[in-house]
Design brief:
The chain is an alpha/beta fold and about 150 residues long. It is about 15% helix and about 30% strand. It has one domain: Sandwich (Immunoglobulin-like), CATH 2.60.40.1120. About 25% of the residues are buried.
């Protein structure tokens, strides 16, 4: 009987150890980022703008940009984040069956029209050179994009 009891106790200890190990993963600390996106020094005043934050480990949080250029993003990973900003070009053709919001960094194949109103260099976090360090609960970040005039 004691051998069965000992095996039961060992099994229970093993299960508890696995459960404890699974719950001990380090939680990602997050913060909020808010600000105003400007293009050539002023808000673009266009719909369908998005800002994307990519933190350590590839954690992504996006937020819409209002027509006045303001945005608010919560759940952004603490630490250094790469940033992408893009405004979808409403006149760019959208392939049948595709999503309305294009893939950042992509170009439309039809007539080689750009899928973004803003330069494509800002549309992907690996190319944009935009970064923000979220080092507190709330951070203000006001990126200024530069490029040719947008119609």
């Amino acid at each position: 009987m004691s051998r069965v009891f000992l095996r039961l106790v060992m099994a229970l200890v093993g299960v508890l150890h696995l459960a404890a190990a699974g719950g001990c993963g380090k939680a990602i600390e997050v913060g909020a980022v808010a600000g105003t996106v400007s293009y050539n020094g002023k808000p673009l005043n266009k719909p369908d703008g998005m800002i994307l934050f990519v933190g350590a480990g590839g954690t992504e949080i996006s937020a819409p940009i209002k027509e006045d250029g303001t945005y608010q993003a919560s759940g952004v990973a603490r630490g250094d984040n790469k940033v992408a900003v893009f405004y979808r070009n409403p006149s760019a053709p959208v392939a049948r069956g595709s999503k309305r919001i294009p893939t950042p960094g992509a170009r439309s194949e039809s007539q080689n029209n750009q899928q973004f109103l803003t330069p494509t260099e800002y549309s992907h976090p690996d190319n944009s050179k935009l970064t923000v360090n979220v080092d507190q609960e709330t951070v203000t970040y006001n990126p200024n994009l530069n490029g040719p005039p947008v119609k």
